[in-house]
C-alpha cells in the first residue's frame, strides 16, 4: 500500500514542478500539489499505522516527512497564481528530496525506533516542520531579491511578469521565520533534554542547526528589513540544507 | 431576422467628424427608439447603431443628419454574423485604441440598458457583455497599465503592495503628475503633501487631494515621512539629491520622476531601498505592457471567434424553431385526442396513461429536435424544416 501511494504523490509533485514553469498552467500545478500532498498524507498515515508509532526516525524517513511539511507549508502560504515562482522553487526541491527519500527506503513501511514516540514527535516533528518553514522563507527571500533586482534594473517587463510586491514578500518571509523559529526551539530543547539524559555530546548536525537558530533569531531580534532580511534568510537556509543533507549521516 | 450595424469609428473617421455624431446616452437611446428595434452605442471613438430587421439605411441617414455631411465613404455597414463579430470585438476591447481597455464594456452595457431591444438584439448584446467580462478575466489583456500615470501607480503597488495608507509627496503641479497622483489616490494612497514653485498652485492641488501645501524648499525634510515621491516640475536642475534622502528607513522609498529636465538625481536610485523611475523608464514599461496586451489580444480573438460561432448557431436554430414547435403541438393534439377516448377510466389509471404517453412523446421527439437544430447549425435548417412540414402535414406559416 505504502509503495502504491508513493507514485501518485510523486506524479502530483512532478506535474506541479513542470506546470509551474508556465503561468498558463498554474491551476494544473496547484491541483498537482494538492493531489500529491493528499497522496503523501495517506502514505505517511499508512506508514504510521504499520509501525504503530513514529516511523520517520531514519534519515530517509525524516526526508519523507520534511517534504510533506514543506509542501504543506507551501499549500498554506503560497499556492496562488502570484506565487507561481515560489512553487517553481519549492516543488522541484520537493520532488528531488522525495525521490532521495524513496531511494533511501524512507517511503516504505519503515521501522520503529528505540526512542519513544513522544520524543520523536516533538523533536523530529518540530525540527522538520521548522525546516520546512525555513525552506519556504528562503523561497520567498529569493523572490524578494529577484524582484528587487528587477526594480533596480528597471526591467520593462516588471508589470507583465508580475511577482508579489517587495513589502509583501518581506513580510511573508519574516512571518514564516517567526512561525518556524519557535518550532525549531521546541525541537532543539527536546533534543538537548535527551542528550543530557544520555550524556552524549553535540554532533555536527546539531552544531549547524544551532548556528541556523542563531541566524534566524538574530534576524528577528534585530528587526532587519529589505535586502538584509532576504540575504540572512538565505544564509539560514544554507545551514538548514547543510544540516539536512550534508551532515545528516552524523546524526541518524 | 437580419442583424445590421451602421457606424463610424476612430478607424475610419477623423475626430472632427466623430464629434459631430457623438451623442450623450439619453440622445443615443432616443435615436435608437426612433429607429425601432435598435441599440445606439456612442463613445468618443465610435457611434454605432445596431438594428434588428432593418438594413440600416434609415440609421445611416440619421447619422448623416447629425454629421451634416454624407458618411457613405467612411461609415461601415455590416450584417448578421459580421455585425455580431464586430460587436463582440468592441465589447472585448479589441477594436479600441488600447487593446483591452475596460471603459468600453461599461459603455456597451449603458447603451444596451438605455434601449428597449427585441429578442435578437437582446441576445447579441447579452452575449457581447458576457464575452467582454470573460475576455478580461480569462486573459491578461486588461491587467497591465496602458499609460504613464497608470504605470507609475502600478509600479508603486509593485513595491508596496496595497497602497492604502501609503503617503505620497507630489512635487510640481503638472498635468501628468496630477494624473499620476490621481491614479495613486485611486489605489488607496494618500497624497499627503503637494509642493510647487507657486504657493497658489500647491494650495489648489493640495486642497483637491486633501493634502498639505509645501514650498519646494520643504521637500527634502519631508522625504523621511513619505513612501512615494512624484515629481513633475519644470525646474532646470535636480531638486532631490542623494544627500536629501534619509539614510535609516524601515520601508522602501519610491521616486517617480516624470519631469524633463529630471527633478531627481539619478544616483538616488543607487541608495539602499530607493527606487527611481524616470519618464523613459515609465514609457518603456508602458510599451512593454502594450506589447503584452497585443499578445493577449490573440487569445481574446479566439474567444471572440468562438462566441461568433455560438451566435451563428443560435441564429440558424431560429430557422427550425417554428417547425419544431408545430411538430410538438401536432403530436400533443394527437395525444390529447387519443386520451379523450379513455375519459371513463378511473383517475389513477388515466393519470398513469397520461404520464406514459407524455414520456413516449418526449422520447420520440427528442432525437428529431436535436437533429433539426444540428442541421440548422450546419446551414441546412430550412430544408429539414420544409421536409418536416411536408411529412407531417404541418400548417405552420412560413
Which tags fit this structure?
heterodimer, A: 252 residues, mainly alpha, 2 domains, 0% strand, B: 398 residues, alpha/beta, Beta Polymerase, domain 2, Rossmann fold, 3 domains, 6-stranded parallel beta sheet, 4-stranded antiparallel beta sheet, 55% helix, 13% strand
3D architecture notes:
The complex is a heterodimer of chains A (252) and B (398). Chain A has 252 residues and is an all-alpha fold. Chain A has two domains: 1-114; 118-252, no CATH class. In chain A, 77% of the residues lie in helices and 0% in strands. Chain A has helices at 2-19, 26-51, 59-78, 84-103, 117-153, 166-198, 204-221, 226-246. Chain A starts with a helix and ends in a 6-residue tail after the last helix. The model of chain A has no long low-confidence stretch (mean pLDDT 85). With 398 residues, chain B is an alpha/beta fold. The longest helix of chain B is centred in the last third of the chain and has 62 residues, at 279-340. Chain B folds into three domains: 3-142, Beta Polymerase, domain 2 (2-Layer Sandwich), CATH 3.30.460.30; 148-287, 3-Layer(aba) Sandwich (Rossmann fold), CATH 3.40.50.720; 308-392, no CATH class. The radius of gyration of chain B is 31 Å and the shape is elongated. In chain B, the strands form two sheets. Chain B has a six-stranded parallel sheet with strand order 7-6-5-8-9-10. In chain B, strands 2-3-1-4 form a four-stranded antiparallel sheet, sandwiched between helices. Helices cover 55% and strands 13% of the residues of chain B. The A-B interface holds A 147, 151-152, 154, 156-160, 162-168, 225-227 and B 143-145, 151, 154-155, 157-161, 250-252, 269, 272-273, 275, 277, 281, 284-285, 287-289, 291-292.
What oligomeric assembly is this protein in? Answer: heterodimer
Give the rounded overall mean pLDDT of chain B.
90
| Helix content bin of chain B | 40-55%
The side-by-side strand order for the widest beta sheet of chain B comes to 7-6-5-8-9-10
Largest sheet geometry of chain B = 6 strands, parallel
**Residues in helices of chain A, as a percent range:** over 70%
Radius of gyration of chain B: 31 Å
**Overall 3D form of chain A:** flat
Largest interface: A-B, 19 and 27 residues
Helix-strand pattern of chain B: EHHEEHEHHHHEHEHEHEEEHHH
Strand content of chain A: under 5%
The Rg value of chain A, from CA coordinates, equals 18 Å
Amino acid at each position: 500500500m505504502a509503495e502504491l501511494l508513493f507514485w501518485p504523490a510523486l506524479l502530483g509533485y512532478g506535474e506541479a514542478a513542470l506546470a509551474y514553469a508556465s503561468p498558463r498552467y498554474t491551476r494544473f500545478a496547484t491541483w498537482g500539489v494538492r493531489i500529491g500532498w493528499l497522496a503523501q498524507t495517506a502514505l505517511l498515515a499508512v506508514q504510521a499505522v504499520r509501525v504503530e508509532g513514529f516511523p520517520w526516525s531514519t534519515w530517509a524517513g525524516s526526508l519523507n516527512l520534511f517534504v510533506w511539511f514543506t509542501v504543506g507549508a507551501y499549500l498554506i502560504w503560497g499556492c496562488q497564481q502570484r506565487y507561481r515562482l515560489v512553487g517553481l522553487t519549492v516543488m522541484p526541491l520537493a520532488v528531488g528530496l522525495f525521490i532521495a527519500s524513496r531511494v533511501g527506503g524512507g517511503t516504505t513501511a519503515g521501522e520503529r525506533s528505540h526512542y519513544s514516540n513522544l520524543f520523536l514527535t516533538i523533536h523530529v516533528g518540530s525540527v522538520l516542520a521548522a525546516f520546512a518553514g525555513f525552506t519556504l522563507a528562503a523561497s520567498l527571500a529569493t523572490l524578494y531579491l529577484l524582484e528587487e533586482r528587477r526594480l533596480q534594473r528597471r526591467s520593462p517587463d516588471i508589470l507583465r511578469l508580475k511577482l508579489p510586491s517587495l513589502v509583501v514578500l518581506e513580510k511573508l518571509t519574516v512571518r514564516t521565520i517567526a512561525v518556524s523559529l519557535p518550532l525549531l526551539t521546541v525541537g532543539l530543547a527536546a533534543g538537548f533534554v535527551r542528550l543530557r539524559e544520555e550524556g552524549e555530546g553535540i554532533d555536527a548536525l546539531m552544531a549547524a542547526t544551532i548556528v541556523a537558530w542563531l541566524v534566524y533569531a538574530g534576524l528577528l531580534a534585530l528587526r532587519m528589513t529589505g535586502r538584509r532580511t532576504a540575504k540572512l534568510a538565505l544564509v539560514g537556509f544554507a545551514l538548514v540544507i547543510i544540516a539536512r543533507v550534508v551532515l545528516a549521516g552524523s546524526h541518524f | 431576422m437580419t442583424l445590421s450595424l451602421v457606424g463610424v469609428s476612430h478607424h475610419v473617421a477623423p475626430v472632427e467628424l466623430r464629434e459631430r455624431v457623438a451623442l450623450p446616452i439619453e440622445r443615443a437611446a432616443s435615436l435608437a427608439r426612433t429607429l425601432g428595434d435598435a441599440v445606439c452605442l456612442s463613445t468618443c471613438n465610435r457611434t454605432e447603431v445596431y438594428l434588428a430587421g432593418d438594413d440600416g439605411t434609415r440609421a445611416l441617414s440619421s447619422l448623416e443628419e447629425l454629421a451634416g455631411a454624407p458618411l457613405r465613404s467612411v461609415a461601415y455597414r455590416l450584417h448578421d454574423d459580421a455585425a455580431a463579430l464586430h460587436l463582440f470585438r468592441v465589447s472585448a476591447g479589441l477594436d479600441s485604441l488600447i487593446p483591452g481597455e475596460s471603459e468600453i464594456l461599461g459603455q456597451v452595457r449603458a447603451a444596451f440598458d438605455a434601449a428597449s431591444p427585441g429578442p435578437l438584439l437582446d441576445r447579441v448584446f447579452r452575449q457581447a457583455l458576457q464575452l467582454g467580462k470573460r475576455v478580461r478575466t480569462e486573459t491578461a489583456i486588461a491587467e497591465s497599465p496602458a499609460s504613464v500615470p497608470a504605470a507609475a501607480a502600478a509600479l508603486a503597488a509593485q513595491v508596496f503592495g496595497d497602497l492604502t495608507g501609503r503617503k505620497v509627496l507630489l512635487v510640481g503641479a503638472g498635468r501628468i503628475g496630477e494624473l499620476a497622483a490621481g491614479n495613486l489616490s485611486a489605489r488607496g494612497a494618500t497624497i499627503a503633501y503637494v509642493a510647487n514653485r507657486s504657493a497658489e498652485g500647491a494650495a489648489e492641488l493640495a486642497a483637491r487631494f486633501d493634502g498639505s501645501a509645501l514650498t519646494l524648499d520643504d521637500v527634502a525634510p519631508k522625504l523621511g515621512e513619505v513612501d512615494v515621491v512624484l515629481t513633475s516640475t519644470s525646474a532646470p536642475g535636480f531638486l532631490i539629491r542623494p544627500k536629501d534622502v534619509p539614510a535609516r528607513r524601515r520601508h522602501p522609498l519610491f521616486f517617480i520622476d516624470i519631469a524633463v529636465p529630471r527633478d531627481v538625481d539619478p544616483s538616488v536610485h543607487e541608495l539602499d531601498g530607493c527606487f527611481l523611475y524616470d519618464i523613459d523608464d515609465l514609457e518603456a514599461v508602458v510599451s512593454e505592457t502594450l506589447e503584452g496586451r497585443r499578445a493577449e489580444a490573440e487569445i481574446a480573438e479566439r474567444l471572440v471567434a468562438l462566441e461568433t460561432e455560438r451566435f451563428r448557431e443560435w441564429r440558424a436554430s431560429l430557422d427550425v424553431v417554428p417547425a419544431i414547435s408545430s411538430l410538438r403541438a401536432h403530436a400533443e393534439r394527437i395525444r390529447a385526442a387519443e386520451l379523450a377516448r379513455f375519459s371513463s377510466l378511473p383517475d389513477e389509471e388515466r393519470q398513469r396513461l397520461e404520464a406514459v404517453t407524455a414520456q413516449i412523446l418526449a422520447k420520440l421527439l427528442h432525437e428529431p429536435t436535436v437533429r433539426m437544430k444540428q442541421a440548422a447549425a450546419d446551414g441546412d435548417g430550412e430544408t429539414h424544416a420544409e421536409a418536416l412540414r411536408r411529412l407531417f402535414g404541418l400548417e405552420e406559416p412560413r
